Amino acid sequence: MKYFAYTIDPLHIGSGGYRLGRVDNTIVRDPGTNLPKLPGSSISGVCRNYAIYQLEEKEQKEAIDCANREPKDDKNNCGKCIICKTFGYASGQEKKNQVGRVKFFDGQIVAFPVATMIGPVWVTTASILNEIGGQGTPPTGDKLLAGKDLIQEHDKINLGWLYMKLEEAKEIQLPEEVNLADNDIWKKINERLVIAPEWLFPEIVNSNLEVRTSVAIDFKTGAADSGALFTYEAIPRATLISFDVVIDEYRCNEEIKIEKVLKIVQSGLQLFESLGLGGMNTRGFGRMKVLNLDN
User: Which of the two residues, 207 and 94, has the higher pLDDT score?
Assistant: First the structure.
């Protein structure tokens, strides 16, 4: 199942280190493209945790008891509750492990919001659109492509510090057959899509990430603590992301059926919209709405 998610807040999935550059705390990137991504491990871990909140009383108690067990060897899942059976488990005490019945894959940026002189647009590439089941033709040279309604009287457009020629696209569209909970978001992005050259897309994204500055407050003085200034980057709000979730039907049986696994996973994904994921959750970061959940 391919899910599409829309960031309600900036999203910071930290890389766990520092680098020499414009920010102190960087986000995770794909090493091949240098594009920010949403690790499958982050999606899986948060979904597993939130799914517990949505269980019925008996199953929830079993899952909470499992989650609250005292760890030994840093691994001590019970292996018996519905969460362990769905997402997998590792038990250091009993030396038993089992892979989950559901697999999560990295989330990729589908359409990236950028402010321009004609209003906000969502930048993508032809390969991304075609990969997710949409339609897109690649531009030639250093041009950008957009729909006829978006172009209107403009033949050029600015994307941050870039100023590029804009031409009409023969094909440009997000996938049509998607069960969407919020068609307004899907329609808004679809109407303002811009196709960029493959080689330029990472530069556009990385040049328009949100960068924030924070500082620790000295409790005694109430002022900024000296030497405690730091910066961090984030995927901006209104970014469209896609990620795949696959249920291993061969591991599903009478004990736990495919329908049950799907229900548990989607119940966890549903809470991304209110509880968020990633870092800086208490500072206005992390909420993300999964658009095509079954209702």
Answer: 207
Q: What is the CA radius of gyration of the chain?
A: 22
β 144-146/162-168 pair status: parallel
Residue 294, token pair as written in the block: 């079954």
**Cα 190 → chain centroid:** 19
| Burial class for 155, CB neighbours closer than 10 Å (0-12, 13-18, 19+) | exposed
Would you state the pLDDT for residue 153? 73
Burial of 227 (0-12, 13-18, 19+ CB in 10 A): exposed
Contact 256, 82 (CB under 8 A): yes
Burial of 134 (0-12, 13-18, 19+ CB in 10 A): buried
Burial class (CB in 10 A: 0-12, 13-18, 19+), 83: buried
Query: What three-state secondary structure class fits 158?
Result: strand
pLDDT in tens, 100-159: 899 999 999 999 999 998 899 999 999 999 999 999 999 988 899 999 888 887 888 999
Helix axes of 258-270 and 40-53: crossing angle, nearest 10 degrees: 100
Nearest-angstrom CA–CA distance, 108 and 35: 8
**pTM of the entire structure?**
0.89
With CA atoms as reference, report the closest residue to 169 among 201, 188, 144: 144
Contacts of residue 220, defined as CB under 8 A and 6 or more positions apart, other chains included, come to none
- Using the structure block, give the residue that is written with the tokens 């590439």: 125
Given a cut of 90, is residue 237 above it in pLDDT?
Answer: yes
Q: Is 222 left (phi over 0), alpha (psi -120 to 50) or beta?
A: left
If one counts every other C-beta atom within 10 angstroms of the C-beta of residue 224, the result is 13
